[in-house]
Write a structure and sequence with these properties.
The complex is a heterotrimer. Chain A contains nine helices and ten strands. By secondary structure, chain A is α/β, with parallel strands linked by helices. Chain B is mainly α. Classes of the chains: A alpha/beta, B mainly alpha, C mainly alpha.
């Protein structure tokens, strides 16, 4: 689905990623883990087109999307949930959803809004509320609702459960699994909560200092305490 | 072959303008090129220096020599000035003292003015700072054009010729003197810029937050640099006034004294004084050429030279910013001991890595 | 019959409000201050001049011409200069310098045009006042009525657009978080471009009405920009509603304040009028830098509504209303 090939990227003159390779297979959950500052968020942002690319390429379903303007990438079917500020706090829930579905015809939008409210029922009563009144977990859910409303093929999540209340974490984790199993989406996940991330994903990448250190089935990384200790501090 | 007289005139003409604009551009480079303060109100300091000269030189001199004290200073400024000049012709010490005294007063007054302007604005959002500075430049023009006793409002005020005692050698000696002053300013600012303080202000330009977290008062540093730059730029106003023997408030337009120095700095290369020098020189020559060929141009394009010049210059600045923003002499990246340029930018990148929001000033390293 | 200075105050405040709404709006969408805003007003002024002196039409036709001309000028500045610079990674200050350069280009062009007009229409091309070309209705000057009508309708239209249309909501989204809007597939550059077109056009329209009451020169556009700065700072460059209030506050302060001071101190005060908004700007920045919109933001309206509703529920229960 998404192939990143020998990507050198960063912000302006500062390089963060060095020769990064990544393949996110269709309808699988691929996870990117690594220490703080290793470039995980930058990698997602590079796929989206928000960073400066020095060399290398990003392709989506075979088409080159390297450094394309992000709204074009979004309209091609890639959804991205950033780590912070994933919803428009000053807009109401309804307006947020309208933004998500801005490209849709009225009927289609109404239909999808219904679907999405089925997945996240708590939104139904809060349609007119401004997103500022929502808790962190609720905002994540709203962000996910917005992403799903667009019926993307790929969904990229940047640390969706790191800052969440443990009670909600399992709900969100279940939703992520549902994305792959129920909705057949390709999921690309960046997470700090390594154990959980590895447990639910199919393939894992370990990023450190901007380079890919390990690539392989998540199970392997889970069971390999040495790698884990070296980079992630588990085990 | 132009006569020796004409050649001398052209050279002294160019060198005067070069001197004046070099001082202003160096001041601007100190404020913007090195510290990242967008001084869109440079005209405030230049006009300030000229106004001090126009308002005080004559008044101080007439009190000292006790001439023309019963006349109205502004209305009869020409008469008063010629009386003063008569005394100055045989009093070289008086001329020199007056010259230096005015410089000191102008520098102090404009340093204070610079402080007043930055007081509300240096710590708030950059947009506000820019607006305040533009407005301050306009404010001084309004005061100058309307407060008659200052520099004659929309008329003008005559300034005594402090170099009249040099006789025929005046023109050459004064040009040389002014060039010397400009070079002195250049040298002093080069020293500042190369010193640990210079590295500090560039660090503030790159990442104020990091420098702040190291315990430095970045707001105070920026204010200090601005005040310093204002003081230096006012020198140009003083020299201008003493050179033209008159001060006219309407001559201090922001298109000439704010906009043009910016063009010179961006053309030459911001962040380094050699760039300032090159940019200033090139544009002075271009302007003089336009002046010389003004008549020919107006035959073809029936347009006032000043507007055509402004139109071309502003278009040119836009082109420079798009195609060669670093200027002709790009600034060399500088390592700041204990505060690595690249390290700081890496800290920025790491902040963005962990998902914190964008800050304009951070990675678009200006 | 209104006293002249009251008419003047209202007209000035209406036009200043239109200009500050535009200035703030352009800044909020593109995150760059449009220092060429005054230039668009200057173009508007000379559109009126051309229509009245050269084409001998009623001055109000100028509105029809000025809106597209100034809108296009503003859009051109955005597309040709701002976008080109943004693509090359330019920061806030570089972009601002570029708009100042654009302002200088417009300023020079307007002066060239004024000089040319002087050849066609006489010396008054550089200084003119068209109060006599204006109509009167019920003893009130036409421009008073038109400017007020324009102000009210533009505010209404803007508010409706921002709250009821998809484009308006997308604009508010872009203002809040352009990055997020982009990831949802919204073309934020297009939104900024359109908003600069609209605000440029509005500045032009405001400019067309200025000569109907105020003496106008090629410098008027740049001068009024100082008051626009002040109005925007008072409003707090974070909401156009703030700019609306700011425009009126500064407009009234400027005109009525000058009038009052000149009564007390003498007519010499009048030429220092532009200093009033500047002083106001200073004071606001020292005391309340976030402006009126900032203060309003601190009062969380939704919390007040929630507390109010829970209070009323509580009160109903106490009264024995079992269903509350």
């Amino acid at each position: 689905m998404i192939k990143v090939n020998q990507l050198d990227a960063g912000y302006g003159p500062i390089q963060v990623l060095y020769e990064v390779d990544l393949v996110a297979d269709a309808q699988q959950i691929t996870v990117i883990v690594g220490p703080n500052g290793s470039g995980k968020s930058t990698l997602l942002k590079s796929i989206m087109g928000s960073t400066t690319v020095y060399s290398g390429s990003v392709t989506y379903k075979g088409r080159d999307i390297t450094a394309r303007p992000k709204h074009q990438v979004a309209n091609m079917g890639i959804a991205y949930l950033p780590q912070v500020e994933s919803v428009f706090a000053k807009l109401t829930v309804k307006e947020n959803l309208i933004m998500a579905g801005h490209a849709l015809e009225r009927e289609e939008f109404e239909a999808r809004q219904e679907e999405v409210m089925g997945l996240f029922p708590f939104l139904k009563e809060r349609l007119k509320a401004k997103a500022t009144t929502f808790s962190g977990g609720e905002r994540q859910m709203l962000a996910m609702a917005m992403a799903l409303l667009r019926k993307p093929e790929v969904i990229m999540l940047d640390e969706p459960i790191t800052h969440l209340d443990p009670k909600i974490t399992s709900q969100v984790v279940d939703k992520i699994i549902e994305l792959r199993d129920g909705l057949n989406l390709t999921v690309l996940l960046v997470e700090q909560n390594v154990k959980t991330a590895l447990e639910i994903s199919d393939k894992a990448y370990l990023l450190a200092s901007g380079r890919t250190m390990y690539e392989g089935p998540s199970q392997e990384l889970l069971e390999n305490p040495e790698l884990g200790r070296m980079y992630l501090g588990i085990g | 072959m132009p006569s020796q007289e004409l050649l001398l005139t052209i050279i002294t003409d160019i060198s005067i303008w070069f001197v004046l604009y070099l001082i202003v551009t160096i001041a601007l480079n100190l404020q913007y090129g090195n510290t990242g303060i967008p001084n869109f109100g440079m005209v405030l300091s230049v006009a300030g220096g000229a106004y001090v000269t126009g308002a005080l030189a004559g008044r101080i001199a007439r009190l000292y020599y006790n001439v023309g004290t019963d006349l109205d200073f502004v209305a009869d400024s020409a008469k008063i000035a010629s009386m003063i000049n008569n005394r100055l012709a045989s009093d070289p010490l008086g001329g020199i003292v007056l010259f230096l005294l005015i410089i000191v007063i102008a520098v102090v007054v404009n340093a204070v003015l610079g402080f007043i302007v930055t007081y509300p604005s240096i710590r708030v959002r950059e947009v506000y700072l820019m607006m305040v500075l533009i407005a301050a430049g306009e404010a001084i023009r309004i005061v100058g054009e309307n407060y008659y006793p200052l520099v004659g409002g929309t008329t003008w005020v005559q300034v005594p010729n402090v170099f009249i005692w040099l006789g025929d050698a005046q023109r050459v000696v004064v040009s040389v003197l002014f060039v010397g002053i400009a070079l002195l300013v250049f040298w002093v600012v080069q020293r500042i810029v190369g010193s640990p303080f210079g590295r500090l202000i560039r660090a503030v330009r790159e990442n104020e937050t990091v420098v702040e977290s190291l315990g430095k008062n970045t707001v105070g540093i920026r204010a200090l640099v601005f005040v310093l730059g204002s003081a230096i730029a006012s020198l140009a106003g003083v020299l201008y006034a003493f050179h033209s023997h008159a001060v006219m408030a309407t001559a201090f337009q922001r298109s000439s004294w704010t906009f043009l120095p910016w063009l010179m700095l961006m053309l030459g290369g911001k962040g380094n004084n050699r760039g300032a020098l090159l940019g200033t020189f090139l544009l002075i020559v271009v302007r003089r050429l336009i002046m010389i060929f003004k008549y020919e141009v107006q035959q073809v394009i029936p347009v006032e030279a000043i507007w055509l010049e402004l139109l071309l210059m502003s278009g040119f600045l836009i082109l420079i910013m798009i195609y060669r923003p670093e200027g002709l002499i790009p600034e060399k990246p500088i390592k700041v001991r204990g505060l690595d340029y690249e390290d700081m930018a890496r800290v920025n990148a790491r902040n963005r890595e962990s998902g914190e929001g964008d800050e304009w000033r951070d990675w678009q390293l200006e | 019959m209104l006293p002249t200075y009251v008419s003047g105050a209202i007209i000035y405040s209406n036009l200043l409000m239109l200009l500050s709404i535009g200035f703030t709006f352009a800044y909020l969408t593109a995150k760059v201050p449009n220092f060429a805003h005054g230039g668009n007003a200057a173009i508007g002024i000379y559109v009126t001049f051309t229509l009245v002196r050269i084409m001998e039409l009623d001055p109000y036709w100028a509105i029809l011409f000025a809106f597209p001309i100034c809108g296009l000028t503003s859009a051109l500045i955005y597309k040709g200069v701002i976008q080109a610079l943004k693509r090359r990674g330019a920061g806030l200050i570089s972009l601002s310098i570029a708009t100042i350069a654009a302002q200088m280009m417009i300023f020079a062009s307007v002066n060239i045009y004024a000089d040319y007009m002087r050849g066609q229409a006489g010396a008054y091309a550089r200084v003119f006042l068209f109060r006599n070309e204006d109509f009167e209705w019920l003893g009130l000057p036409g421009v008073l009525l038109v400017s007020t009508l324009l102000a009210v309708s533009i505010i209404t239209v803007l508010h409706l657009m921002l709250t009821k249309t998809k484009f308006g909501i997308a604009t508010r989204a872009t203002v809040e978080n352009a990055d997020l809007a982009g990831t949802l597939g919204i073309d934020t550059e297009l939104i900024s471009l359109v908003s600069w077109f609209i605000t440029g056009g509005l500045a032009g329209v405001a400019g067309t009405l200025l000569p109907l009451w105020f003496q106008s020169t090629p410098y008027t556009g740049s001068l009024i920009l100082m008051s626009v700065f002040s109005a925007s700072v008072v409003g707090g460059m974070s909401s156009i509603y703030g700019a609306m209030v700011g425009g009126y506050v500064i407009g009234l302060t400027e005109v009525l304040g000058t009038s009052f001071l000149s009564d007390q101190l003498g007519s010499w005060v009048l030429s220092y009028r532009p200093l009033i908004p500047l002083i106001a700007m200073f004071i606001i920045l020292v005391r309340v830098p976030e402006g009126l919109a900032g203060i309003a933001g601190k009062i969380d309206l939704s919390r007040i509504r929630e507390s109010a509703s829970s209070l009323s529920t509580f009160a109903r229960r106490r009264r024995g209303d079992r269903d509350a």
